[in-house]
Amino acid sequence: MILRLTLSLLLLSTLAHAQFDLVNSGYDEQNPVISPDGKTLYVTIANHPQNIGGVKDPGDIWVSVWANNEWTTPVHGGLVLNNRGYNAVAGLSQSGNELFLFNHYTKNGDLPTTQGISVCIRTNAGWSAPKNITIPYFKNRSEHISGQWHENLQVIVMAAESYNSLGAEDLYVSFYLESRWSEPTHLGNLINTPLQEMSPSLSEDGRYLFFASNGRKGGSGSFDIYMSERLDDTWKNWSIPVNLGIDVNSDGRELYFKKFEAQNIALFTSTHNSDGYGDIRVYHEKLPEVQKVDTLLKIVEAKREYKDAIKRVTLSGRVTNSKTGVGIPARIILKADSTYIAEAPASGNYSLVIPSTRIYTIEVDSKGYINLAERLDIHTFELETLEMNFKLQPIEVGASVNLKSVLFELGTTVLLDESYSELNVVVDFLNANPRVEIELEGHTDNRGDRVKNLLLSQQRVDKIKAYLVSKGINAKRIRGKGYGGSKPVATNDSEEARKLNRRVEFRILKN
Fold first, then answer.
1. Which of 312, 373, 417, 500 would staple 425 via disulfide (CB 3.0–4.6 Å)?
2. At 5, is the secondary structure helix, strand, or coil?
């Protein structure tokens, strides 16, 4: 009897996998999504020669339909759903009339310079052109994006390398509240690790989170699938993630685990026993039991929170127009392992209580002014109050900004890690002001060979421009020139003065 049952389950598994024989190919199948009526399968296929961008295209959406007890060979989703960037389905409404997509789209099919999600509406002629949806303070520094839109909860869970990321990609959630999306919330350190967490999805009731990770001990391969139970509505308290085991995970790479309740199956992708790329697999076993958070772990966390609670500092000050000295409304954002935000009214005055045990990146943003970035290191000081005033320059031709935190290794073009926070602020500024064109200026002190200094300053400017372009900024909007030591802002007779002369600036050429 047991042998017969085992053989029946094996046959069922074989038949289930066979349903995808026409879908799986020599290319990389990713992110399978079944429509609510069970008749359509959307799958992203990477590096296919028929993709919009050809074999270099990171992924286009392809479509398969259910016929004769199997999924048909996918056909390309067309120009409406695809461009030369990465295209993937984030989810569908239960009616099947709304299709949510990852990334933004442009009218002419060029790569967008903004990030977020998009939605298409079903019409008699097919899907409408995607409408871009902006998620406040969403930023993804990774080329990878994945996740799921969940209609019942009105949330989207996503993987991105963003603010508060512990290392590479982390998992976040954004809520749709009062007709607008919230700033992404980090899912916490029990879910996220210093390595990569990717392809999150939720069970139909939103109680369970499924995701892939390569940052946990005891995994079978490069990426394994894990499951965790959400313990409350903060989205930060979770059960200990449990590995889904050998029925899913292998010595290959498993990603994109999604449960489809109507079909009573889960789909995921795996490189195990494939041609080296991802193929779609089927899972129809009972999910394992979750593990509740250990009491000791709760005690350790409580002690850490208490330690932070008794070490706080009140940060206050004023944001003003650098030319007139008049206060201006602004948003002050401090980022460390959490994000803290203060809104300054028209007076420019702000106040914010933060833990005094952190190193912060500060961004100051006001419409019509050039964004400002600062670094605040107070984790070794015992402070109760701290005053920081900020002067923002109006966006106008000729305005110049010193990128104080953009630093290089001595004598090289290698950017120090702390440079990227400020460079990303420049990216945000250029995205928010698409008509602005700038010139990057590189400067050195007067030590060493003049010609070599001139060359080094030019190479550093080129390096920064390349980074901005890699983040989607049109190269035509950026000029760059190295001046060597020909334009000092201080004497060169002390190290403190020479440090001021070693700088990178940008100047607005067109507004």
1. 373
2. helix
Per-residue pLDDT tens digits for 21-61: 889 988 999 999 999 988 999 999 999 999 998 988 999 99
**382 with 353: CB under 8 angstroms?**
no
Q: Are 404 and 355 in contact (CB under 8 A)?
A: no
In the prediction, which pLDDT does 12 show?
40
Residue among 98, 96, 35 at smallest CA distance from 71: 35
At 460-483, the pLDDT tens digits run: 999 999 999 988 899 999 998 888
Would you say how long the chain is, in residues? 511
Residue ranges of domains in the chain, CATH in brackets: 15-284 (2.120.10), 294-394 (2.60.40.1120), 397-511 (3.30.1330.60)
Find all residues with CB under 8 Å of 78, minimum gap 6, and list them: none
Least confident of 27-36, 143-152, 227-236, 284-293: 284-293
70-71/60-67 β-pairing: antiparallel
Query: Is residue 329 classed as helix, strand or coil in its secondary structure?
Result: coil
